[in-house]
Structures are given as structure tokens and as C-alpha cells.
Amino acid sequence: MVDSIRIKLALWFVCMVMLLYSVDSIASLMVFKISLMRSVDVGLEDLIAEIEPSVKTINGKPSLEEWHEEAKGKHPILATVQIYDVKGKPIEEYGPEGVPQLHNGHLRVRTDDRSLRSMFSKIEQDGKTTGYIQLQVSTKPQDDAIEQFFLVVMVVAPFIAAGVGICAYLFSGQAVKPIERTLLMLRRFVADAGHELNTPVATIEACLETLKDPHKLGDMSDDVFRMMERASDRLRHLSKDLIVLARIEDPESEMMRSNVPVKELAESVIAELGTIARERKIELVVQPIPDVMMYGHHESILEIFNNLIENAIKYSEEGGKVRIDVEQKDANLHITVADNGVGIPADSINNIFDRFYRVDKSRSRDVGGSGLGLSIVKAAVERHSGNVTVESEPGKGTTFRVTLPLARVGT
Q1: 400 exposure class (CB count in 10 Å sphere: 0-12, 13-18, 19+)
Q2: What order of strands is seen across the sheet that includes strand 90-94?
Q3: Which fold has domain 184-254?
Q4: What single DSSP character describes residue 312?
Q5: DSSP string covering 242-258, please?
Q6: Contact assessment for residue 127 and residue 140, using Cβ atoms and an 8 Å cutoff
Q7: Percent of the chain scored above 70 by pLDDT?
Q8: Lowest-pLDDT choice from 52-61, 211-220, 398-407
């Protein structure tokens, strides 16, 4: 699929470039042709201005016979020089054979497929028009130049198309890399989500089968209902986290931002998770939290605190400690959550923010969770233009550090 997108992008780019090349070539050809014809017209105007004073009026009719006798001995006459009477009837013609027709502009001789440029001017004597002088010149040199221009355009076109096609294909490879990564993540997400959903669904199905047969149920009814409750809770948490993650990651989704009271929010999360910590005999060491406001999305910031602290509690051993430190430095909010739990192997550090990634799958399923908590943290932090880092040593614990930009109240 990605390769087909890449090829389509390259083809579209080639088509666009060649369309622009064609338009530019046609425009250039027209300008070139107009320029050549204008230069011919200027030459004809100058030549008429040079010859016109030599026109003599004999018996009321204009004539260039004397000029012709004088001129032919000096140099060959390359242009057709024609004299017409006042009615437009041809009287004299000198030089190459022309077209006996008064005309300003382009002429084509059908008999021998010649192309001529023609220009005429009135011959006046004592303020009275006595006839016309017309010059015609072959445009073969100009036509040849135009033809050469066209041939060059046509010859160069395939090379341009090939070059642009190769470049477009190479650059489109870079352009589709984000699409490729997204598709890969989507496939992996669908596979992982399906796997995660399969376990609680299978548990519920097994419990339902047991409930159908009262003889099999016996004294297991309480256990069956507890299993169904745990499976349904897992499904509920998984669907909730998927919705939260999708909303945060979607750049088109609207995130209503406001001034969030950091101290109040953090203390509410710590109080809620304190019950779980006490049950596991884990001490929460909370440093004084500054009473500051952060301009951001309330629910996303809540998810950052909740998932980091909950994650630290889950992966701490009984009797362990979780340290929570929130500081304001310059224009940033720094959140540090550290535990002295099992830690994370070095080869897993780069993957812990991936969806459904678990370092120890068996332990992770025992402590619960959807496997999306750290993915939500990373997405929420990045949505607020912040960054998150992690340091860990197996057997000694893990430290997460989050930096979020603070905005002034009222911004």
C-alpha cells in the first residue's frame, strides 16, 4: 500500500511538473516567435524608409526603375520590392518572386509552401496618394529557429520527466515514511488491542458457560462472579484508556485549555491513590507542591499525574517508597516520580511508552492495568509541548521526569 502511494505521489508530481513545463514552453515559444517577427517588421520598416525617397512618379504612376538599375549593380536584392498604383494594382516587382497582394503581416505561398512577411506603405506626392510600396521577405530563417526551439523542447522533455520522476520517487519515499510508521503502529495496535480484549472476553465467556450448568457451579459461584467482575473492570479500563489516548493523540480534537491549579490537582490524585499505596504498604513521599497555575488541558494533566504515580505504586515491592516531587523552575513545571521497585531492563527503556508494551507480561497482568498508561503520559506531555524522560536500574527502581511549559495566568 505504501509503495503504491509512493508511486502515485511521484506520478502526480511528474504530471504537475510536465504540465508547468508544457505551459512554460508554449509561452516561451510564443514570445520567441513574436520577438522574431517583430525584428523582421523593424527591418522592413527601416528598408521601406530607405527606399521610399527613391520612388519617382512617371505619368502619374510611381516607379522604382531607376533605383533598381542602380541597386542591382551594387548588391543582390534579397527582399521582394513591389509597387502598386492607387487602386492596389501591381505595377512593378523587383527581387525574389513575391505575392501580388497588398498585405501587412504574415503570408503563406501555397504553391511552394513559402512563408513571407509583408509590409506596405503609402506613396504620397504633394499630399496626394499616388500608390503603394510593399516589401516582402522570406521568414525561413525565423521559421527554422522556431522549429529548432520546438525540437529542443521536445527532446529535453523526456529527460526532464525521467529526472523529475526519479527525484520525486526518492523524495516521496521520505514523505510516506510517517504514513508507513502510522500504518505499522495501527497494525500493531489492532493486533495488540485484539489480544488484550481477548483475555477478559474469554474469561467472561468461560464464566457464562459455567453459569449455564448449575451442577458445575456448586460452591464456585462467588469465584465465578469475582472473575466476571475483574474481567468487566479490565474491559472498562481498557476502553476508557483507548478513548483517552485517541482523544489526546488526535491533532484535530479540541482540547479546552484553562488555568489548571497544579497543587490542587496533584494532591487530589495523591489522595485517591494513597488508599492503594497503603493497601500495598507502600509509602508515598510527597515534597511540598508549589501553588502555581498551568495553562493546559485539565484532564490530560490529571492523566499524567495519575498514570505516573499509579505505575510507580504497581511496580513497587511491598514496603517500598514512591517519591513525588513537583517544582517550578523558570517558566516550566518539573514533575519527578521515583520508586525503588523492580526497575526496567536497559533494552526495554525505549519501548515502555509503546501501546500495550509490558516489560514483564506475567507480572503486569497480575498488577492490572491496560498497558496504555505510559502511552497516555507521553501523548499528553507532547500535546503540551513538553518532554518526558526515564531512568531505571533493574532491582533499584525507576525515575520518570516530566517537563511542561507554564503559561501566565490570563494568557
Answers
A1: buried
A2: 90-94, 80-85, 128-138, 114-125, 105-109
A3: Helix Hairpins (1.10.287)
A4: H
A5: HHHHHHHH-TTS----E
A6: no
A7: 86
A8: 211-220
Does 58 have pLDDT greater than 90? no
Question: In the numeric block, which cell numbers belong to residue 63?
Answer: 516607379
DSSP lists the bridge partners of residue 194 as none
- Most confident listed range (161-165, 182-186, 249-253): 161-165
Cell 496533584, residue? Answer: 266
| pLDDT at position 19 | 92
Per the prediction, the chain carries an average pLDDT of: 83
Sequence-distant (6+) residues with CB within 8 A of 53 are none
Numbers of helices and strands, H then E, in the chain = 10, 14
Lowest-confidence region among 54-58, 139-143, 180-184, 277-281: 180-184
Q: Which of 403, 396, 398, 365 is nearest to 381 (CA)?
A: 403
Task: Report d(CA 345, CA 325) in Å as an integer.
Answer: 24
Residues in Cβ contact with 106 at an 8 Å cutoff, skipping those fewer than 6 apart: 37, 115, 116, 117, 118, 139
| Phi, psi angle pair for 215, to nearest 5° | -65, -35
How, if at all, do strands 332-339 and 321-329 pair? antiparallel
Higher-pLDDT residue of 56 and 180 is 56
- The structural domains of the chain, with segments of one domain joined by +, span 2-170, 184-254, 257-411
Measure the CA–CA gap between 224 and 203, rounded to whole angstroms. 9
Cβ neighbors of 343 (< 8 A, separation 6 or more) are 392, 393, 394, 395, 396, 397, 398
Regarding the domain with residue range 257-411, which homologous superfamily does it belong to in the CATH classification?
Histidine kinase-like ATPase, C-terminal domain (3.30.565.10)
Burial annotation 175-186 (CB, 10 A radius, 16+ → b, else e): ebeeeeeeeeee
DSSP string covering 163-194, please? HHHHHHHHHHHHHTHHHHHHHHHHHHHHHHHH
Quickly name the fold that domain 2-170 has: Beta-Lactamase (3.30.450)
User: Biggest alpha carbon distance in the chain?
Assistant: 141
